[in-house]
């Protein structure tokens, strides 16, 4: 994923410092992400994709996907989903081939473990829907609210509320996430 960000940044003639300023993501974080040393959160991916004037899912497309257009139906195949690994999360963009989509669907797995610090809270524009497929998910909000969700439970919230996905029981939680951005 880092190589894709670097390739697009260079294609647009941007330096790492320019992208850091445009995205409001620190220079060291971008540098480490481009080299594959760290994973970016959804919030930072969104900021970088906007700074690069790209749809978020464009960063997850395979070369074959880049040529797809004019669809009115899209069937997604698990074998073609690009999975991204970040601290305590694994997620793959679904329907990444769809151009100019209004929502960002993702299949995710929340791994057991504690957040590093308060900066792990995600906060971005739009709304978010989460459906728990398997396991128990704890949604922790920055204002102190917590909601424990079991398999087949769901939650819908405004994404500008600082939020954190937690797996406090078991090895992981499998979820479906749909984000809708205001852009």
From TrEMBL:
<dbReference type="GO" id="GO:0005829">
    <property type="term" value="C:cytosol"/>
</dbReference>
<dbReference type="GO" id="GO:0003677">
    <property type="term" value="F:DNA binding"/>
</dbReference>
<dbReference type="GO" id="GO:0003700">
    <property type="term" value="F:DNA-binding transcription factor activity"/>
</dbReference>
<dbReference type="InterPro" id="IPR014710">
    <property type="entry name" value="RmlC-like_jellyroll"/>
</dbReference>
<dbReference type="InterPro" id="IPR013096">
    <property type="entry name" value="Cupin_2"/>
</dbReference>
<dbReference type="InterPro" id="IPR001387">
    <property type="entry name" value="Cro/C1-type_HTH"/>
</dbReference>
<feature type="domain" description="HTH cro/C1-type">
    <location>
        <begin position="5"/>
        <end position="59"/>
    </location>
</feature>
<protein>
    <submittedName>
        <fullName>XRE family transcriptional regulator</fullName>
    </submittedName>
</protein>
<dbReference type="InterPro" id="IPR010982">
    <property type="entry name" value="Lambda_DNA-bd_dom_sf"/>
</dbReference>
<dbReference type="Pfam" id="PF01381">
    <property type="entry name" value="HTH_3"/>
</dbReference>
<keyword id="KW-0238">DNA-binding</keyword>
<dbReference type="InterPro" id="IPR011051">
    <property type="entry name" value="RmlC_Cupin_sf"/>
</dbReference>
<dbReference type="Pfam" id="PF07883">
    <property type="entry name" value="Cupin_2"/>
</dbReference>
<dbReference type="InterPro" id="IPR050807">
    <property type="entry name" value="TransReg_Diox_bact_type"/>
</dbReference>
């Amino acid at each position: 994923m880092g190589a894709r960000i670097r390739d697009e940044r260079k294609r647009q003639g941007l330096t790492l410092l320019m992208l850091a300023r445009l995205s409001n993501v620190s220079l060291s974080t971008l540098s480490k992400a481009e080299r594959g040393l760290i994973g970016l959160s959804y919030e930072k991916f969104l900021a970088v994709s906007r700074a690069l004037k790209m749809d978020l899912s464009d960063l997850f497309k395979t070369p074959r996907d880049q040529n797809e257009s004019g669809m009115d139906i899209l069937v997604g195949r698990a074998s073609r989903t690009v999975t991204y690994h970040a601290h305590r999360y694994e997620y793959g963009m679904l329907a990444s081939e769809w151009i100019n989509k209004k929502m960002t669907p993702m299949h995710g797995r929340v791994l057991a473990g504690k957040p590093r610090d308060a900066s792990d809270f995600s906060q971005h524009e739009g709304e978010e829907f989460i459906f728990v497929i398997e396991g128990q998910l704890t949604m922790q909000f920055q204002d102190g609210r917590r909601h424990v969700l079991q398999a087949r439970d769901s939650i819908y919230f405004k994404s500008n509320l600082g939020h954190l996905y937690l797996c406090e029981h078991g090895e992981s939680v499998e979820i479906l996430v749909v984000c809708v951005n205001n852009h």
